[in-house]
């Protein structure tokens, strides 16, 4: 081989090495570029490390749009994000809810959509129907009933509310037979002409119709029409509420219209009517002319000074009205110190006497079968009395609904644990929560009612979402009535 041929061969080898190095450098550069591209599309994701260029190509391909013409998309629940971020419930919360819902499973009348006010007793009121509606909303929210069961129950209720006979063609009667929706008296005996109207009972029903329409907007219009069917002209007027009853002593049993509501329940109900637009300048405030204060255990407790001898109505200072005002209407600057003192005075009694205390009105499992167990009534603290003023101090009870209400409203106070623990076993797993525990060692008060179990379920719904009227107003989903049905506060004459 000549010198020229040797040099040519050397140059060819050198060129091959250079080409090889360039090729390797290019391959390395390509790998770096691919790595950087994948990293820019989420290098910390599994998909970015598996596909290289294939992953890059996939991300560049157009995505198929979500089809809207399918019932998977069309049959969707309403967007309730405006209600706020729901809080979780613990396993004990759900256990409590399941026990309470047992009552409503056992006491439902599918033909009317109404629930018995007391266990196995087919009689109900608008108050108890409101409590039952609260329970139904909560049970659905907690997954205790499905959409179909919920709608079946609500639709049956609306059908009855739309067709039920009204007292004097004005508003719902005080009592109905739960299985037939016929007007009855307090003994559940037929009363074709009805016995009267309770404005407070109507307010509780309105409150939960409002929450129903708020959480389930498809029911907002039926809820509105249910209320607009009533003629409230004589019931909500002059800044107050009025009930009706038949005067049994008169020959023609004439209808008497009388002011209804005392401090506590008056404000709970007055605020509800005010939200509909009614003038409630007297009833909706705790600072009205009828407010008085008494010190119990050195704590100021407000009560109503109206004399029961005038209208036959006592002012029962109990837990329930304040608790419901808080969870439904919301806590504000006016009611906050009052609710706090309702809690503190009962805690103080426990500290002074050792008696775990949370009082309210409740059904009893013995005569007289219903009792107002109060913080203050008729000039007496810690008075247990009937609506006629007959005292039954030996039948004082720790109220389950009151104990759980206070415990949930004041969860950071150690006394709340005492309350919740003391009533934690006051139930029948197949029937629901009992009404209470007798203070004197008499065991459980085994009366089981829609109101106690409904309030318990509504407490847990409150825990999940918060105060009902404020959140519904935030969502702009509160009930409003047609202008022709109501005289709004903007044009009310203030006397």
Which terms summarize this structure?
alpha+beta, 4-stranded antiparallel sheet, globular, transmembrane helix, DUF3131 domain-containing protein, transmembrane, membrane, DUF3131
Describe the structure.
By secondary structure, the protein is α+β, with helices and mostly antiparallel strands. The protein has a single domain (88-479), classed as Alpha/alpha barrel (Glycosyltransferase), CATH 1.50.10. Helix content is 44%, strand content 13%. Strands 7, 8, 9 and 10 form a 4-stranded antiparallel sheet that branches. It has a 3-stranded antiparallel sheet with strand order 13-14-17, with no helix packed on it. Strands 18-21-22 form a 3-stranded antiparallel sheet. A hairpin with a 5-residue loop joins strand 21 and strand 22. Helix 5 runs antiparallel to helix 16 (450-465), helix 8 runs antiparallel to helix 9 and helix 14 (400-409) packs parallel to helix 16. The longest helix is centred in the first third of the chain and has 38 residues, at 3-40. The protein starts with a helix and ends in a 21-residue tail after the last helix.
